[in-house]
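Reviewers of the previous submission asked for a worked example of the structure-prediction workflow described in the proposal, so we include one complete record here. The input consisted solely of the amino acid sequence. No template or homolog information was supplied to the procedure at any stage.
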Amino acid sequence: MAGGAYVIVKDGKVVESLGVPIGRATNNAGELIAALCGLKAALTHVEDSEELVLVSDSRYVLSSVFKTSDLSKNANRPNVSVLKELGKVVNNIHDKGCRLHTRWVKGHDRNSGNKMCDKLARASARSQKYQQIRGE
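From that input alone, the workflow returned the following structure tokens.
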């Protein structure tokens, strides 16, 4: 069973974090769904014209974020439905006047946000329930 997670940080403080139960899925699907959920949630925390940075230890996710426009040509591509939804969210971010950047971090390293995501994702995968970290 799979789980994903996101952590939203604004002005140096965690404003939202959530572990998401995914059920049966590949690691890539879990990573994409986590990014999708995180970007959707981030839209509720940003002002128009703000910059968003998607930080992930998944190069697959980061390389996929801006490659969603040609999906109609690749209907058999793995995770195509999640990628199409991700493309819609990226368009919503741009429509709000925000700029989206991506940044890769080494997994299982000293990045506190990445550690929190790993903890939430594992807990959601085990329990298949939404998870939050209290007091963060």
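The two ends are 26 Å apart (CA to CA). We consider this example representative of the routine output the project will generate in years two and three.
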